[in-house]
Description:
With 179 residues, this protein is mostly beta strands. It has one helix and eight strands. The longest helix is centred in the first third of the chain and has 11 residues, at 2-12.
Amino acid sequence: MKHLFFxxxxxxxxxxxxxxxxxxxxxGGSAAFSYTRTNPEINGRLFEMNLSPxxxxxxxxxxxxxxxxxYNLTRGKSDLNRSKTERVMLAPFVRYYLxxxxxxxxxxxxxxxxxxxxxxxDRRNPEEFxxxxxxxxxxxxxxxxxxxxxxxxxxxxxxxxxxxxxxxGFGLQIHLEKx
Length: 179
């Protein structure tokens, strides 16, 4: 692990020009995980995983709009019961890089509003709102490794379904140059 951070520091110290300027494309994705243990009386555990590929376009410097799909898996286990839920969401998103475009390490914020694709037979019309912030480390002018913290507010027409989740995620984005 120490070698990975050393390698990232060396690569980040190189002079780079990131492709987060107008008329460039953003293609990539992320994986985020959460694990929760509850009180000892019910011996509960909850695991959540989000996989999110995305594509976006920079209409202005540092500002991209795009579309992401998300596969979410949640598994719960306790002394009382077991549960498993899966959902596939489709969400338009907006992403903004906070620092200058030529920085090899940049901060970003992102927001998305998603609705569930009904391939899993769920008729409750669930929706989610996501806000995410993180660090993009450009390994070269086109590839960025990302570490982000996401807050997801998920709710449904079913009054008993809904949650608020904070996930730590890692991603890779490819910034395609102008054609």
